[in-house]
Amino acid sequence: MSTRTFATAALLITACLAGCKTSFGPQTGLWLYPVPVSPFWQKQMEDKYHIKERYDRVPILGPITSGGAPVALDPPTPDEIVRALPTVQGGLPFLEEIQRNNVRMTVEPIADYIDPPRFYPLIGWAQLHHAHYKCTIFYSEVTRVGWPIPHTLVDEDASEVIYIDHNHFHIVGNVEGGADSNYPAPPQQ
Question: Who has greater pLDDT, 175 or 108?
């Protein structure tokens, strides 16, 4: 073994014993060879970020202006409705496969109301605006069974009902802040 190889091996062993991290990224392993990442885990991480970015946050809007009733933000998107659907159980290829085809959706607003002003610690004085929607999904469910006797079952009139809530805040009072902007006085009603 040459001295250069010995020195490199001794350096890596010392780094491992000292508790230092020897990997240089998510794709490299201990000896700097790529480690394969399953597309399943990659898709799961992308979906987690997608949901956090679009649906898990509560927006904070400006104050409600006088002269009209405030209207809620956009109704649920088809992407949000499909993600809220319960997953299909089963799905073993060539044994049992379940599919949802010809998907149609209707979105009906149920309620749209605003809570009275309240102090929220990280926001200040704000009002919580609620919007509730009833989403009905119509689809045809196709179940293909491959063993022991191959057959196909088709349910043309399958439907699911999902209730989706959208909430956002409206700032109340002095938006720019005053002399004591951390704890402003409650708004006069």
Answer: 108
- Comparing CA positions, the residue from 170, 70, 186 lying closest to residue 123 is 170
Residue 45 lies in a domain: no
* Percentages (nearest 5) of helix, strand, coil residues in the chain: 20, 35, 40
Q: Which domain holds residue 128?
A: 65-175
Q: Which residues in 81-116 are b (16+ Cβ under 10 Å) and which e?
A: beeeeeeeeeeeeeeebbeeeeeebeeeeeeeeeee
Number of domains in the chain: 2
Buried/exposed 15-40: b ≥16 CB within 10 Å, e otherwise: eeeeeeeeeeeeeeeeeeeeeeeeee
**By the 8 A CB rule, do 127 and 170 touch?**
yes
In a domain, 170, yes or no: yes
Point out which residues pair with 136 in neighbouring strands: 106, 161
What letter does residue 92 receive in the DSSP assignment? B
The answer to whether residues 174 and 187 touch, using CB atoms and an 8 Å cutoff, is no
- Predicted TM-score (pTM) of the model is 0.69
